[in-house]
Amino acid sequence: MFCQLYGQTEGYPISVLRKGDHDAAAADLFASCGHPVSSMAVALLDEDDQPVKDGEAGEICARGPQVMDEYWRRPEQTEETLAKGWLHTGDMAWRDDRGYLYIVDRKKDMIVSGGFNVFPREVEDVLAAHPDVAMAAVIGVPDEKWGEAVKAVVVPKAGAKLDTQALIERVKASKGPVHAPKSVDVVDAIPLTAIGKPDKKVLRERYWQGQSRRVG
Known about the structure:
Helix content: 10-25%
Number of helices: 4
Number of strands: 12
Low-confidence stretches: none
Structural class: alpha+beta
Strand order of the largest sheet: 4-5-6-7
């Protein structure tokens, strides 16, 4: 039987996308991390640990027998991760009316621009689909008006020349003006983590140097 499981070291599994869910007639489910497993209570919570409405993004939080008891000799991190009896995964997701979960981004990567939440992965997916873009990373950078502004950092494919304004318009047309980058930097390479993902901590540091805070 083929299925996909979602979870993390602190609690696994949390949800499952079963064999029957892999149906070309319901292709939207391919983007889902599935339905909560029966042994887990799963909630999508806001900053105050209150449930969000269906269709709105909240942090995936879970309770169940497969959730860890604690981090070894790290009581402060344990208290934060297991706040109010929930395992806080750090993953932001929304739930459809069938109960399936769709991860949109990591909570720590979310950009708050002008009071609106922007999930970088949604913008990155639009940029990465451009035929001349080899890699894209989206971060929040300091902005006097918006607190944080959406910035895209992109690597062009070999021999390609990118029109940064066209990339901005591409995102605006797909996701709306709130998600559209205020600026796009074209670079030769994006710093990567040990597992090959964009290292946004290193990338942010280029733009937040000299700032007393790392959020808007």
